[in-house]
Amino acid sequence: MEEHELVELCRQGNNRARKELYEQYASRLQSICLRYSSDRDTAQDLLHDGFIRIFNSFDKFTWRGDGSLRAWMERVMINEALQFLRKNDVLNQASTIEDSQELYDEPDAAEVELIPHSILMNFIEELPTGYRMVFNLYTFEDKSHKEIADLLGINEKSSASQLSRAKGTLAKKIKDWLKTNDK
Fold first, then answer.
1. pLDDT single digits (tens) 47-72
2. What are the pLDDT digits (tens) for 8-37?
3. What is the pTM of this model?
4. Which CATH number fits domain 3-88: 3.40.50.2000, 2.30.30.240, 1.10.1740.10, 3.30.9.10?
5. CATH of domain 93-180
6. Three-state DSSP state, 49
7. Using an 8 Å Cβ cutoff, are 132 and 43 in contact?
């Protein structure tokens, strides 16, 4: 079924179309939920809640061509994850870091390419919540520190500091993995 037709049928409440939409996009959207939650059960809950929001919000979706549905659904999932984290005060449980910056030896791209994608994603999942949120928003969603600060209710310096700490933690994990695996 074409994306535009799928949208119209979902907008009308067609359950067959909703099932097809879910089957077509659930895997991709679950990976987004996992990026924002280090726990698979929570990610599954976020996916479920996000799809409910998607199914109830088709009147707010505007077709802008191929890919616009996927982009809209990804934004819904990201917002669902951020809302969950704010509601459960997960972001405030992370340590606030103001001015301290850790220096780290950033691995080069060739070294990083030696590590399987699943391992890299596990490294990101293992980051402390605040670091992971900032890293994801900055790296994958291309948000500025000002935008991240507004989304997470933190100041820009905290966003920049948490990104630096996230990168430092990831760099250490990458270096350790490379040493352990003789790469």
1. 999 999 999 999 899 888 888 999 99
2. 999 999 999 999 999 999 999 999 998 888
3. 0.72
4. 1.10.1740.10
5. 1.10.10.10
6. helix
7. no
